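DM from R.C. (forwarded with permission)

"hey, sorry to bug you on a friday — could you get me a structure for this? deadline for the figure draft is monday and I only need the backbone to look sensible"
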Amino acid sequence: MSESLTDTPPKLDFPAPLGNAGKQDSPPPPAGASDSAPKRRGRPPGSTNRNSMSVKSIEDALAQQFTLIGTVTMAFNEYDGTVILQGTPQLAKALANLCDKNPKIKKNVERMLAGGTYGEVIIAAGLIAMPIMANHGLMPPSIRSLYGAAIPEKEEEEAVAT
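My reply, with the result:
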């Protein structure tokens, strides 16, 4: 009689249990693995941040962030939002000057602003959405005033309609 493949179970090699370390050879490296050390990722040692922001660009980016925060806050509390918007230029300038004097703080502020591409999209979309929402009565009237004559008042709409 001939034996079929299903009559005998395959022999399986299991790694040695933790208590038997060194009694069994280590498993072979995976296919395609090289003997050389893995490649380093990131910047080479000693490199500097060549994409450092200027003090003026830091000030502008911070002012933009604070303006958005103030505008959103104004939708919920007009006084608080107004205070944030009025203090934005001075705070942005003071933080930018601090970044100019202290490289560690500058590095952290740049990191905070590094989400820039996503932040820019959110700010741009917010600056479009907020006046539209104000125009449809979804934001308080104080938001409407931030955009000046771009959004007609209800009285103006009624006067044009008659």
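R.C.: lifesaver. The chain has a mean pLDDT of 76.
me: no worries. The CA atoms of residues 66 and 88 lie 6 Å apart.
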